[in-house]
From TrEMBL:
Superkingdom in the source lineage: Bacteria
GO biological process, one term: polysaccharide biosynthetic process
Domain Acyltransferase: 29-353
Transmembrane segments: 33-56, 62-88, 109-128, 148-172, 184-202, 208-231, 238-257, 277-293, 305-327, 343-361
UniProt EC number: 2.3.-.-
Pfam families: Acyl_transf_3 (PF01757)
Keyword tags: Acyltransferase, Membrane, Transferase, Transmembrane, Transmembrane helix
InterPro entries: Acyl_transf_3_dom, Acyltransferase_3
Protein's UniProt name: Acyltransferase
Length: 382
């Protein structure tokens, strides 16, 4: 999942192109709004699926409207590649390679795991109650690592399958940081290309290889390329506008003309990863690049609310399945509203729950752990 830019290790002088790019990126409210849109697109897909257990929303009969929102994941991957590549480019080449690598990875752990572990407890309790909890599955789920089975089984929170790929991307950057911060993004891109090439030779239908060599990882590469280009050229408003429209049009058209089932399961088994990259991944990267090159601050009240939703997008994403689990149990009392109003209502409830989760749990937790990391407790003398 894309994450806000943390305090950077050894930021370069503000006059360098990379530092200017990072400074501009932090002020890019458009990217935050794009995160909110991506999260709500994914939530909408799961809302339709949840309501469909009880009634058939009209949306399911309108071409691929019920599934196209899954492209929000591809938008997240492109944003993540852009942000993390910019973070990596801000690490001073002369800093300690091991320290920079471990610091980079620990910051990713801080951002990803605490709230993920907290919300995963919901489904741990559900599985315990239903006697479905398997220790090996629990360990894989909590560590966000693939099992030794093919295809990759999703974590307890199903949407966490994307975090397995996200963490793998972080590990690739970390590995390359051990060899120095200079050109770390270029080496990361090369590493992913090499792994995918090897996977095409030996075949994806193997445990672990399905993660290491999955073509879906190229969506992070596209984000990295955006980061490299933005660091070099900065804002390009006209180019951003062209890319924004060039990416939005095929994403919208995929609602009508996509004949493939390119959702999660066919990425986890690798069968349609290339199709997803072409149909959603490249357009999603173009939309992301468009908003990056247009870099703007939003001042309208509605726009500021969109930015707040973007800040809470990770919580919205994770809290969606627990909310839908509870919502389904109350559905008989809401059935009279109709299927489509229930899709809208449940989506709104997830957005509200995600905002509350961000403000009351995720944000305070993140600040607390980050403060402890920056200011370790003073050890008393023996």
């Amino acid at each position: 999942m894309p994450i806000p830019v943390p305090t950077l290790i050894g930021e370069p002088a503000p006059s360098t192109p990379v530092a200017k790019a990072a400074s501009t990126m932090k002020k890019n409210d458009s990217i935050q709004i794009l995160r909110a849109v991506a999260a709500l697109l994914v939530v909408h897909v799961h809302a339709i699926f949840s309501v469909s257990h009880h009634a058939i929303p009209a949306e399911t009969r309108f071409f691929n409207l019920s599934g196209v929102g899954a492209c929000g994941v591809d938008i997240f991957f492109a944003i993540s590649g852009f942000i993390l590549s910019t973070v990596a480019m801000n690490i001073r080449p002369k800093s300690s390679s091991a320290h920079s690598a471990l610091d980079f990875l620990f910051r990713r752990f801080i951002r990803i795991f605490p709230i993920y572990w907290t919300l995963s407890l919901f489904f741990v309790l559900v599985d315990l109650k239903q006697h479905h909890l398997v220790l090996s599955s629990l360990v894989n789920s909590y560590l966000l690592v693939p099992s030794l089975h093919f295809p990759i089984p999703p974590p307890l929170i199903f949407v966490g399958w994307t975090l397995i790929f996200e963490m793998f991307f972080y590990y690739i950057i970390t590995l390359n940081l051990f060899f120095g911060a200079g050109r770390v993004v270029e080496r990361t891109i090369l590493t992913i290309f090499v792994l995918i090439a090897l996977g095409s030779i030996i075949g994806l239908q193997r445990p672990v290889v399905i993660l290491l060599a999955n073509p879906i990882n190229l969506e992070f590469v596209l984000g990295c390329l955006i980061g490299l280009l933005f660091a070099r050229y900065g804002k390009r408003h006209a180019l951003g506008t062209v890319l924004l429209f060039a990416g939005t049009i095929p994403l919208v058209l995929s609602t009508f003309f996509n004949k493939y089932d390119i959702e999660a399961n066919n990425v986890l088994n690798g069968s349609l990863s290339w199709h997803r990259l072409l149909i959603w991944g490249i357009p999603a990267a173009m939309v992301t690049a468009g908003l990056v090159f247009r870099s703007s601050q939003i001042r309208s009240p509605l726009g500021r609310f969109g930015v707040q939703l973007g800040d809470a997008s990770y919580s919205i994403y994770l809290v969606s399945l627990p909310v839908f689990y509870v919502y389904e149990r109350f559905y008989p009392h809401l059935a009279s509203l109709g299927a489509d109003p229930n899709v809208l209502l449940s989506t709104l409830l997830v957005a509200v729950a995600g905002l509350l989760c961000y403000r009351l749990i995720e944000k305070p937790m993140l600040h607390f752990i980050t403060a402890k990391y920056h200011h370790p407790a003073v050890q008393s003398a023996p």
